[in-house]
Amino acid sequence: MASLRIREAKEGDCGDILRLIRELAEYEKLSDQVKISEEALRADGFGQNPFYHCLVAEILPAPGELQGPCMVGYGVYYFIYSTWKGRSIYLEDIYVMPEYRGQGIGSKIIKKVAEVALDKACSQLRLAVLDWNKRAIDLYKALQAQDLTEAEGWHFFCFEGEVMKELAGR
């Protein structure tokens, strides 16, 4: 494989990040769920108080090649708080284009998020995975992640849209 670089995303990367988000949604057969825009990614990730942070994986051209780096994956994370364990980091999305899988890129993104977590004094790195994504589950287990569904019986829930408005009395 050519040279790989994992780096913090820049505001100008939002178009490529959105392209990869759409690829991930298509892979998960959820493409109709993507409502985010490039403008929202820019505003939410690169303002004064960002809602998320993003790492990108790039294949760098060999010396003498004319094209620039090619973005082949990303990891979106943000900080959360555990009332039992304190500072935590949540890896919302991790995606590597299919033709680049099996080369350790996903592991490198996860390891970089773990570095960020330790640099920010976080006690844990959390993520969720769809139950059918055996390849990702196997990767997380190989990296020694604990499956909280198996270990502690946790279930994740979500309120959104009209239900959230109803809860808020709006």
Automatic annotation (TrEMBL):
<feature type="domain" description="N-acetyltransferase">
    <location>
        <begin position="4"/>
        <end position="169"/>
    </location>
</feature>
<dbReference type="InterPro" id="IPR000182">
    <property type="entry name" value="GNAT_dom"/>
</dbReference>
<dbReference type="GO" id="GO:0032919">
    <property type="term" value="P:spermine acetylation"/>
</dbReference>
<dbReference type="GO" id="GO:0042802">
    <property type="term" value="F:identical protein binding"/>
</dbReference>
<comment type="similarity">
    <text>Belongs to the acetyltransferase family.</text>
</comment>
<dbReference type="GO" id="GO:0046204">
    <property type="term" value="P:nor-spermidine metabolic process"/>
</dbReference>
<dbReference type="InterPro" id="IPR051016">
    <property type="entry name" value="Diverse_Substrate_AcTransf"/>
</dbReference>
<protein>
    <submittedName>
        <fullName>Spermidine/spermine N1-acetyltransferase family member 2</fullName>
    </submittedName>
</protein>
<dbReference type="GO" id="GO:0032920">
    <property type="term" value="P:putrescine acetylation"/>
</dbReference>
<dbReference type="GO" id="GO:0032918">
    <property type="term" value="P:spermidine acetylation"/>
</dbReference>
<dbReference type="GO" id="GO:0004145">
    <property type="term" value="F:diamine N-acetyltransferase activity"/>
</dbReference>
<dbReference type="InterPro" id="IPR016181">
    <property type="entry name" value="Acyl_CoA_acyltransferase"/>
</dbReference>
<keyword id="KW-0808">Transferase</keyword>
<keyword id="KW-0012">Acyltransferase</keyword>
<dbReference type="Pfam" id="PF00583">
    <property type="entry name" value="Acetyltransf_1"/>
</dbReference>
